[in-house]
Specification:
There is one protein chain. Helix content is about 15%, strand content about 35%. It is of the alpha+beta class. It folds into 3 domains: about 40-85 and about 105-280, Thrombin, subunit H; about 285-375, PDZ domain (Pdz3 Domain, Roll), CATH 2.30.42; about 400-485, Pdz3 Domain (Roll). A 6-stranded antiparallel beta barrel has the order 3-4-5-8-7-6. The longest helix has 14 residues, at about 265-280. The termini are far apart.
Length: about 500
């Protein structure tokens, strides 16, 4: 006998003989009807939200120097270096005697392409801070092909949120969604300009929420296809509401690999409100260096479970020191909010208004204590404004150039202020150095486990170092000292 079951999952729980069937015995059958769901149709959402998404292009002023008489020689050499093309033997022309040489001229060159979306009908637009960082000019193109020059209202590097303004009215603004209603597995859609292709629509599902990849933001993880140019574009739910800003991807190739991250819209709105009101974001700080609490440490000190933030250091004169917080304390709560993992602390403290009095709960030598702390304001990031070209800016030295590093000696005053005996200050950090996390202003104290006193020591170590091995550098940024590892050169 052949049974055909459609749209149902059935199981027979009895063994029935042919005699039983012939006798007409009833056979109990349990059936669980499978839910039939069709794939979502995004066409209405695209028509609804598409006109609110914009393309953002940025330009920067570049000084053209043709000192050798070959037009655009520096740019051409940079092109060959960037793409690994052997540098050809370019004939050089000597300047003609007695003839004045042309003076350097500034020229606007394309810097990058990103996305954004309209917050209000009068021209406020939200995007990523890294989209507009360093731009001399920001150009916004609407879906109706109108183009406007935009003014940067404010940009916050820590959250990667920026707000720009164009002079226009009657624009279609997006609807802001409730991130708390967002569920893992829910369908979402992105609209942006990957590789400059305007109004490209991609879709996927929410892969995870509260994903920790930074100090201040719990990201939304999705499998929506995001590529260079999508940055700053909206992540949209099936109700046509913006729930996030597409910001980052995880990639080993530079392209999409199935893991994308979006800034939750509730966090972005809080940042944008401050940017619109003050042009900057004010965050709280208490001045502690923290780390995760391991299971072994938690068990050994009687904490019970691996939770909280382990205080590794307390900044001198900081609110934490004044409150009596000590190295070795485990901060378990801040203003009554439980600290499950160390990354929760900077996020909660950062969201606390500077000047407010808060209660910190610490676990110290088997006992719990509550301490009062007055939250200070974290150092404000420098405005996202491109510095004017400098002819005297130090370049990467011969030894440091391979790593993208250019350094200068520290003055005696700088050493005294930092309470250090030696080291070099980073003036240029690009390529491998930038990827390792180094940036302008860092002070390198040791290279390959060798302390350095000045640029001469720095050069000496790098010249002798095996380029096939990972290079570790001990450096200082602000009050904290940490390591950076530059991977072997290829």
């Amino acid at each position: 006998m052949k049974f055909i079951v459609r749209k149902a999952l059935c199981s027979v729980s009895l063994l029935v003989s042919l005699t039983g069937i012939a006798a007409g015995l009833a056979i109990p059958v349990q059936c669980a009807v499978a839910q039939t769901r069709t794939l979502p149709d995004f066409t209405d959402l695209v028509e609804q939200v598409g006109p609110s998404v914009v393309n953002i292009r940025t330009t920067e002023k570049v000084v053209q120097r043709d000192s050798q008489g070959v037009p655009g020689e520096e740019e051409m050499l940079e092109f060959f270096k960037r793409f690994g093309i052997p540098i050809p033997n370019i004939p050089r022309q000597a300047p003609r005697q007695g003839k004045p040489q042309p003076s350097p001229q500034e020229e606007d060159q394309p810097r990058g392409v990103g996305s954004g979306f309209i917050l209000s009908s009068d021209g406020l637009i939200m995007t990523n801070a890294h989209v507009v960082e360093g731009a001399d000019e920001v150009l916004v193109t609407l879906t109706d092909k109108r183009e406007f020059k935009a003014k940067i209202i404010g940009a916050d590097k820590r959250s990667d949120v920026a707000v720009v303004k164009i002079e226009a009215t009657g624009l279609p603004a997006v609807k802001i969604g409730d991130v708390n209603r967002l569920r893992v597995g829910e369908w979402v859609m992105a609209i942006g300009s990957p590789f400059g292709l305007d109004n490209t629509v991609t879709a996927g599902i929410v892969s995870a929420k509260q994903r920790d990849t930074g100090d201040y933001l719990p990201f939304i993880q999705t499998d929506v296809a995001i590529n260079p140019g999508n940055s700053g574009g909206p992540l949209i739910n099936m109700r046509g509401e913006v729930v996030g800003i597409n910001s980052q991807i995880y990639s080993r190739s530079g392209g999409f690999m199935g893991i994308s991250f979006a800034i939750p819209m509730d966090e972005a709105v809080r940042v944008s409100d401050q940017l619109r009101a003050n042009g900057k974001v004010s965050r709280g700080r208490i001045g502690v260096q923290i780390d995760q609490v391991s299971k072994e440490v938690a068990e050994s000190i009687g904490l019970g479970k691996a939770a909280g933030a382990l205080v590794r250091g307390v900044e001198a004169g900081s609110p934490a020191e004044k409150a009596g917080i000590e190295a070795g304390d485990i901060i378990t709560k801040f203003d009554g909010k439980t600290i499950e993992k160390s990354s929760d602390l900077p996020r909660i403290v950062g969201g606390t208004k500077p000047g407010s009095k808060s209660t910190v709960t610490v676990f110290r030598r088997g006992a719990t204590k509550e301490l009062a702390v007055v939250v200070a304001e974290i150092e404000v990031d420098k405005a996202v404004v491109k510095a004017p070209p400098r002819d005297d800016k130090p370049k990467a030295s011969s030894a440091g150039q391979a790593y993208g590093l250019g350094v200068v000696d520290l003055s005696e005053v700088q050493k005294k202020d930092l309470s250090i005996k030696g080291g070099v200050k980073v003036e240029v950090a690009t390529d491998a150095a930038a990827r390792a996390g180094l940036r302008e202003g860092d002070v390198i104290l040791a290279v390959a486990n060798i302390e350095i006193a000045n640029v001469k020591d720095f050069e000496s170590v790098l010249v002798k170092f095996d380029k096939t091995k990972a290079l570790n550098l001990l450096f200082r940024r602000g009050e904290w000292t940490q390591y950076a590892v530059i991977r072997p050169l290829k």
